[in-house]
Write a structure and sequence with these properties.
Layout lengths: L4 H10 L4 H8 L3 H8 L7 H11 L35 E4 L9 E7 L13 E8 L1 E6 L2 E5 L4 E5 L4 E6 L5 E7 L20
Antiparallel strand pairs: 1-2, 2-8, 3-6, 3-8, 4-5, 4-7
Length: 196
């Protein structure tokens, strides 16, 4: 994933928010947000959704400058992506970061082999397995997805994505965005209070 730290710090400062206020708005810890801003931690997709919601921004704005001219399309070339990271950890690549006004946020994800915290966020989510095998935990259910399998669900259901099998899976994840109700803040359901 591209480094988002400096852009996150800039967006937060431009909105006059302290780390404490952003932590309250996202349900993430101040320490975790500080690690993100210093590029010492890679945010999960759920963390990106929460941060973008709290900043009144789009996830793509955390990856680059806003553009004055709205492109008619966004082309992502797989061969141009950054070098592969540690396969034990997840890696997230936004597929249309510079397109604003989106009603969906597409991502290419390489889920890690290590389980992350279960998360919730606003919107709906679609997962399509491009290669490998993944385990998706939805509340009390476990669903195994193989190549070309897909799963669509309300992202308000606690969920977790993990590669299983011999190779690190490659998945397309599309988050359908909705306006998050202020009475229903995002929740972290397990772990240390930090989204991994």
């Amino acid at each position: 994933m591209d480094r988002v730290g400096a852009r996150l710090r800039s967006l937060r400062a431009n909105r006059g928010l302290t780390l404490e206020r952003l932590a309250e708005a996202t349900g993430l810890t101040r320490g975790y947000l500080s690690l993100l801003e210093r590029d010492l931690k890679t945010p999960s997709l759920a963390a990106l959704v929460r941060i973008a919601d709290a900043l009144g921004s789009e996830i793509g704005h955390l990856f680059g400058e806003e553009v004055a001219h709205q492109p008619d399309y966004v082309l992502y070339r797989h061969a141009e992506r950054p070098a592969r990271s540690n396969p034990r950890q997840s890696r997230t690549v936004p597929l249309a970061p510079m397109r604003s006004g989106k009603i969906m946020e597409p991502f290419f994800i390489l889920p890690g082999f290590e389980a992350t915290d279960r998360v919730t966020h606003s919107g709906d989510e679609l997962i399509v397995v491009l290669s490998g095998e993944v385990l998706v935990r939805l509340s009390d259910e476990e669903v195994i997805l193989n190549v070309h399998d897909s799963l669509y669900f309300a992202a308000s259901v606690d969920h977790q994505l993990q590669s299983i099998g011999q190779i690190q899976a490659q998945v397309l994840v599309v988050v359908g965005r909705r306006t998050m109700a202020r009475s229903d803040p995002p929740r972290l359901l397990s772990g240390s209070g930090v989204l991994a």
